[in-house]
Each structure stands twice: as C-alpha cells, then as structure tokens.
Amino acid sequence: MPAANYNAAVLANGAAGENVMLLTARWDETTPAPACGQFYMLRAWEAEEAPLLSRPISVHRFDREKKEISFLYEVRGTGTQKLAALRPGDTVALTGPSGRGFPVDGTLGGAVALVGGGIGTAPLLQLAAELAAQGVDVDLYAGFRDEPYRVDAFSAACRSVHIATDSGRHGHHGFVTDLLDPAKYTAVCTCGPEIMMEKVAKMCLRAGVRVYVSREAKMACGVGACLGCTCKSKNGGVSVCKDGPVFEGSVLYELD
After folding, report:
1. Residue 204 burial by CB count (10 A; 0-12/13-18/19+): exposed, middle or buried?
2. Domain residue limits, the chain
3. Which residues are annotated as a binding site for [2Fe-2S] cluster?
4. Which parts are annotated binding residues for FAD?
5. Where do the FAD-binding FR-type domain residues begin and end (predicted)?
6. How far is CA 179 from the centre of its chain?
7. What superfamily in CATH does domain 4-98 come from?
C-alpha cells in the first residue's frame, strides 16, 4: 500500500534526553497503521524553505486506540531543529508509513534480544510491546554515551533491561555487545551505529541465531525511486527506504 501524506496535529513535543526529543502527533485513522520498524518522512517547514528534504524518522510508539503516533529523534541539524520547535497545536507533515519493518508474525520464537545504541533504541519500543503481547520473552540491551534515555518506557514489555555506557556512569562500563550472548535467544533485533550492528550481526551468525538489522541512511524520496539510500548487500545494492530499513543480518554481513 502506498505511503499516505497528511498534516498531523502535534500533541506533545518535549525533551527526552540531551539533544533528544519525543514528538507525539495525531494519527489519521484513514491512513495505514505503521508496522514495527517502519518510518515516516517528517516535515515542519514549507517546500521552498531549507532544508530541501524531509527527515526520515522511525516510529517509536503507536497507539491505535488513542490515535497517536510518537517519534523519538536526535536534534542534529536544521531539519530536526525545526521539528524540535514544534509545539502542541502546530502541525507536522507526515508521509508514510514506509519501508519494511521487523517480523512480528510469530516467527521470531520465544525469546528475543533487542540491542539498541543511542537513538537506535527508538524503533525497538514498539517492537518490544508487540512481541510481549504475543507472549515472547523480550530482553533489552541498550548502549549510550553517557546518560540513558527512555529506558523506563521498555520496563512494561521487557523481561530484563541491560544498560551499558561509554562513560561508565550507568550500567556496564563498555560496549553493549559485551553483555549480549546470542545463544540465549531464538532471534536478535538491533538498531544503532553501524559498527555496533555489524558486531551484533556477526556474533549472531557465529551462534547460528537469526538477526535482524535496522539500517539508517540519508534519504531523499523515502519510497525507493531515487536510489539515494542504496547500501551494499551480499546480493548487490539494496535500497534502505524500500528494501529495508530492516534486513536479515545474513543478507548484509559475512563472517570474516
């Protein structure tokens, strides 16, 4: 189904961490419901204004009953600065949902590890909620530079939460991958810095455990038409916005 394009009322938009914002908008129930791991193109400025392109942001939480959709995003440049300036009652242009998300069709098995790095934890909250509702045992492994954010939101859905920080102020002092043993799980889903995801994927491949990776890329169209977000795979170039952003790890990585 093609992505919808509509102006959504902003319900809330506040700080969730250092340079991290949580935006909640009204979901238009006449449009498709987003799946875990899908994203929207967000825009809070006129077409003739800079920046030229909308910003791709993954769905953090979706509530069909309340008709609310939330996005957790890091303020990095002009586009996200304009998103951060939105206040309740303003409107934000949403185009989506787009892309392929995480599999939530019951095939992941009975125990799943979610591994997130920084803002990469954003798409994992909706995934945790949906897997928990299916009776899956979900454990979160989250890594941050210094101060964790939005970790408490995972508590209701996760059996356990494991934190690592570069600074050592919270949780394990070191890499979040130090805490992960893929052999304990039937599947692993990860999102975050590329170097972290590659390590997670290769750990899983060595252990014979299925792994799903959510890639991030700069996007122009968001629908696979411009090929601006192409990345390498074992089978050649793939479009992150159309073929992904979620890929099975075995498609992207090979063991050394």
Report:
1. buried
2. 4-98, 111-215+246-252
3. 221, 226, 229, 241
4. 55-58, 79-80
5. 3-104
6. 21
7. Translation factors (2.40.30.10)
For the ranges 25-29, 32-36, 81-85, 244-248, which has the lowest average pLDDT? Answer: 244-248
Residue ranges for the known binding site are 55-58, 79-80, 221, 226, 229, 241
- pLDDT tens column, 32-73: 999 999 999 999 998 888 888 899 999 999 999 999 999 999
Per CATH, which fold does 111-215+246-252 belong to? Rossmann fold (3.40.50)
On whether the pTM is more than 0.85, the answer is yes
CA 162 distance to own-chain centroid: 18
Q: Sorting pLDDT into bands at 50, 70 and 90, what band is 232?
A: confident
